[in-house]
Amino acid sequence: MSTTTEKITFNKEELERYSRHIIIPEFNIEGQRKLKKARVLVVGTGGLGAPLLLYLTAAGVGTIGIVDFDIVEKSNLQRQVLFTTSDVGRPKVEAARDRLSALNPFVNFEVFNTRLDSTNALDIISSFDIVADGTDNFPTRYLVNDACVFAGKINVFASIYRFEGQASVFNYLYPDGSRGPNYRDLFPAPPPAGLVPSCAEGGVLGVLPGILGSLQANEVIKVISGIGTPLAGRLLQFDAAEFQSKIYKISKDPENPISGINPTQTELIDYEIFCGINQHQLPHELELKQEISVDQLNDWIKSGKIFSSSMCVNLTNTKSLILEALLFQKGKY
Amino acid sequence: MITIFIPTPLRRFTSDKSSVIVAARNVTEAIRQLITSHPSLSPYIYDESELIRKHVRIYLGEEDIREKQGTDTLLKDGDELSIIPAIAGGSGLVN
């Protein structure tokens, strides 16, 4: 990131808008200039992306990229505070741009109404200074991480699941030019498909992404402005149920497949999308549409072979059931 | 005694307990004791080769056991272990 900010100027309206930043001695006009000069890419406009985008826009980041392929659904509104009821059915990137432009007309938005994958990730990420990962699935998490490492971008990370939150700053650029650990130093590979709960099993307390996404926005602003100590080489774990937060150290792993001593992976990978139960995840004993007893299903759920869901619970009243794996695969139950 | 902190995604296997107390001399013994008392945790921590899964980290205090002696790391009374799994999710994601 270039630190030359002399040419960055503000008009009277902007100075008034950002006055509460500018009067912080450590931040001052120089911090605000750095924000205006910065280009930040936010991947995902969901629960994490909503507070991220709102705060980065309000703060006056100069250019914000927004990537999402989805449309706004009613079930998003419980946590995706960027959207209103009237946005349901609209492409998320469009609804987001409208909402954010209304919040701050001095911010430039670049929207990508597409799914980030191995063919476009490097192109999209390369033109930005910092990436903030607000995605909700493992394949995109690893894709964003790997692309940031390959493209030399800082990846401000947060992740949530039900009552659990995690945050870190990956691939941080230190003044000596070295890089901090990345996601694969912490978790070298994604979980196998069979251990990922189905979409319906996922779920999240609505306010949790608000908390973690706000922490993410804070780290983005810190990285841009150079204030404080970034959450690099450290993992924040937040347990919203018990209200406990802990910080764990993350070290570089010499065996990291993309940035270790002998990297084995030099290109981006599109991991199989493994939301929901698909054929590969079902116990070997179960063929599609095979009839099983409720007791058998319960055994499988208890032993962790398959994941229980609200659908399974409801069906325990019946004598037997035909498990339509494809229903689960779509993640609708 | 050793306290093992259970992350929220795995508490359904520990009757919602946020921590489990075990008596163990090293990390392997501690995790095995945890699994003995809560067998359904096993596939979420160990892979088919009985190794800690790649999306799960075990911490002693705030240090990754990988930075110590791995699962052979010795434990002393009052030590705290944490299980940290990779998490992702919340919305309907890709379909």
TrEMBL record, chain B:
Pfam families linked to this entry: ThiS (PF02597)
Source organism, top-level taxon: Bacteria
Gene3D superfamilies: 3.10.20.30
Protein name in UniProt: MoaD/ThiS family protein
Organism lineage string: Bacteria, Pseudomonadati, Bacteroidota, Saprospiria, Saprospirales
